[in-house]
Amino acid sequence: MAPRDPLLGTLKVCVLNLQSDGEIVTDINPHLASCCELLELVLRKGLQQPVLSLVHRDYWQCFEQITQQDTCGRLSALSLVVEQTRVCRKLLSAQGRGRYLLRLALSRQALPQFITHLLHTPRVLEWYSPEMSVLRNEAFLEPFMSLLLVLSHMDFKLNMENCSFLDESWILPVCETYEVVPCRELGMVLRYLSGRVFVLELIPGGQAHADKFICPGDIIDEINGTSLRNSKNGQAGVVLNRLKGCPLSISVLRWKAQDGTVYRPLIKFLQALRIENPTLQLGPVPAQQSAITERKTTPPQCLKEGRIVHIVQFLGKANIGMFGGKEVLQQAIPQVLRKNLPSKEVLLDLKETHLTCTDRSSAQVSAVTEQIFTVS
């Protein structure tokens, strides 16, 4: 009877579970983290450590060396994956980079090619023990490659931006992006802990408090594409000052996991924050998430002169003066609503520098930013 490796048996069950869940595999799939962890265990099994080195060798170094050692000349796609992993600023360890590379290789259906090239690179393959490794055991290698081929025929749609916790865990946090127009102050008290930017408090009257897009305990992961992973004190403020007057895109990592419990890798950080700030109150995330969902609801649309325009209800207009910040809406909206004018269905065209509004009979109503609309 052919020998069996328990890791491969468990991996096979996990791959079958992924297959049974449907054609597309996303981050919310309950079997994804287990599958990735098993792949990691296979790639680590029998990996020998260098004798005269203080650096711990991991499978990331194996993949990194392939592009340097393999001279076959057919590594362009794999080289791109390795380079994208190498330059990612949210990863601080070989473990994190290896996990990012595995997720990226699954998304690009390139994992079998990585293993094939590793097997054809003797200087890297010799890092693995022939007695223990799956990769150097012919009886184990064939079923392992078969499983990788099955994975390569699946459609993985994974969020590669949500990788700041891969150094610690295969389980990733809930990641949401908030878009905010220019405003005077976001109004948040921040705390820097282990290179992460935690929100301690929302200041009443600030934009964050008004919009409820973030809550104490959440992490600001990125602002307009600038990663805040491994940040030093004050770095988020520097980024925000540099972007003053610009629209902001803020990536937020929630303290609450997908299942409603506290995201496990954050428990020790939240405990430390509560020791420093006994009044720290977490949440309420669910209400905020539903508010974000409501804001993201897409209004009805139609085509007008080759452009996509939104069908909305025109309720009236109000003079907001010269200052066009978001704060004036709190005064302008009640002014419009008090007039209690009949609504009119209009077409709203959002352009780069302004918006135009026309009624559906094509007679122009008005053309700039002083009017208040609600989605029909």
TrEMBL record:
Where does the PDZ domain lie? Answer: 185-242
Cited InterPro entries: PDZ, PDZ_sf, Run_dom, Run_dom_sf
Pfam assignment, any one = RUN
- CDD domains associated with the record: PDZ_canonical, RUN_RUFY4_like
SMART domains for the chain:
PDZ
Domain spans labelled RUN: 26-163
Instruction: State the protein's name.
Output: Uncharacterized protein si:ch211-250n8.1
